[in-house]
Specification:
The chain is an alpha/beta fold and 353 residues long. It has helices at 39-43, 50-71, 89-106, 115-121, 166-176, 183-191, 216-232, 235-265, 280-289, 306-315, and strands at residues 8-13, 18-25, 29-37, 79-85, 110-114, 134-139, 144-151, 154-160, 269-273, 293-295. The longest helix is centred in the C-terminal third of the chain and has 31 residues, at 235-265. It starts with 7 loop residues before the first strand and ends in a 38-residue tail after the last helix. Bound molecules: 5'-O-[(R)-(carboxyoxy)(hydroxy)phosphoryl]adenosine and zinc ion (ZN). Zinc ion binds at residues 115, 119, 140, 274-275, 304.
Length: 353
């Protein structure tokens, strides 16, 4: 549809509680990026409040775009890529609406991007990116998935969580321990001071066939242990041990299933992406236990950001179309994606149900 000449793509990420904006140049790499985290707004509620998230994207997105366009020293981009889903619909609509408006104003194509595809392409921002095919371990607040990535838009989901996502388990366990939101970094920090073998928490699914995950039992085990310790009056001295033992169980589960998946698919490259991919213990254990090579983006590109959407847009440039439809979908399977050029992304629309 559009030619594949060197180009600069503006990427917008607004699927949850981070407003991310970046300009990626297909020849020179990342030119500029800004990230605004709403964490302080949601902290007091112990989780993301969708209405507050949407309103804050409205407040922040345009000033951040202006700043990034100025810092990238461009007049206008060749296309605007935006996260179309999955995520919070109201939050997605802010990015989608503005992307389409900018597309009209700049007379350029707009490209809807799947948030998890953005995550799995984030290591492509690094100097030594992985070659296809590879196995992707996608671990965030909303997803836990093992995906065979055979090329851009050629994804087979090998396993996913049957209940809670691993990031959710980190967040909920942190809440039980009285730690702040988001729980992942808080647990990781506290775990440094604890004994990973102090409590033997469950590692569900490891002794079953298949590559799925389940984290609700682990969260419940933490809850029961915390209740017991509170009753005994011993919780304060045990917090670090619980954090460390929880992290150890969650990471062991992720690493064991990933290695199983790599063996089954004969893939010798694993990409770790998504917010929980910032976890140092997960990175260290995978490198230690996996015989192949492990790739991960720098920690700032593990959590939500605009750069991963901008690079996904550059790789999917031929999917760009005239700004005609506001795409914002809460649920969207990665497996419905297709390689660029097949225009499958344009069948999306705002859910009505
Ligand atoms: O990818 P992301 O920024 O947003 C979603 O798409 O969900 O992931 C956020 C999740 C949260 O659950 C957060 O607690 C977790 O990633 N997280 C971590 C770490 N940093 C963020 N979990 C474990 N260790 C970390 N260092
Ligand atoms: Zn994410």
């Amino acid at each position: 549809m559009y030619d594949a000449a060197p180009m600069k793509i503006l990427g917008l990420e607004t699927s949850c509680d981070e407003t991310g904006v970046a300009v990626y140049d297909s020849e020179r790499g990342l030119l500029a990026q800004e990230l605004y985290s709403q964490i302080d707004l949601h902290k007091i509620y112990g989780g993301v409040v969708p209405e507050i998230a949407s309103r804050d994207h409205v407040r922040c997105l345009l000033p951040l775009i202006k700043k990034v366009i100025k810092n990238a020293a461009i007049e206008s981009p060749a296309a605007v890529a935006y996260t179309a889903g999955p995520g919070l619909v109201g939050a997605l609509m802010v990015g989608s609406g503005l992307a389409n408006g900018l597309g009209l104003a700049w007379n350029c194509p707009v490209i809807p991007i799947h948030h998890m595809e953005g995550h799995l392409l984030a290591p492509m921002l690094e100097e030594d990116p992985p070659q296809y095919p590879f196995l992707a371990l996608l671990v965030s607040g909303g997803h836990t998935m093992l995906v065979a990535v055979n090329g851009l838009g050629r994804y087979d989901v090998l396993g996913s969580t049957l209940d809670d996502a691993v990031g959710e388990a980190f967040d909920k366990s942190a809440k039980l321990l009285g730690l702040g939101y988001p729980g992942g970094p808080a647990i990781a920090a506290l775990a440094e001071k604890g004994n990973p073998e102090a409590y033997s928490f469950p590692r569900p699914m490891l002794h079953r066939q298949g590559l799925d995950f389940s984290f609700s039992g682990l969260k419940t085990a933490v809850m029961l242990q915390v209740k017991k310790l509170v009753k005994e009056g011993n919780i304060d001295s045990a917090r670090a041990d619980i954090a460390s033992s929880f992290q150890c169980a969650a990471v062991d589960t992720l690493v064991t299933q990933s290695i199983k998946a790599a063996k089954q698919t004969h893939l010798n490259r694993i990409v770790v992406a998504g917010g929980v991919g910032a976890n140092l213990h997960l990175r260290q254990e995978l490198v230690k236990r996996f015989a192949g090579r492990v790739y991960y983006p720098r920690p700032e590109f593990c959590t939500d950001n605009g750069a991963m959407i901008a690079i996904a847009g550059a790789l999917r440039f031929s999917d760009g179309s005239e700004p005609t439809i506001i795409n914002a979908v809460a649920r969207w399977s990665l497996e419905t994606l297709a390689p660029p050029g097949s225009a499958s992304l344009h069948k999306l629309s705002i859910p009505t149900g």
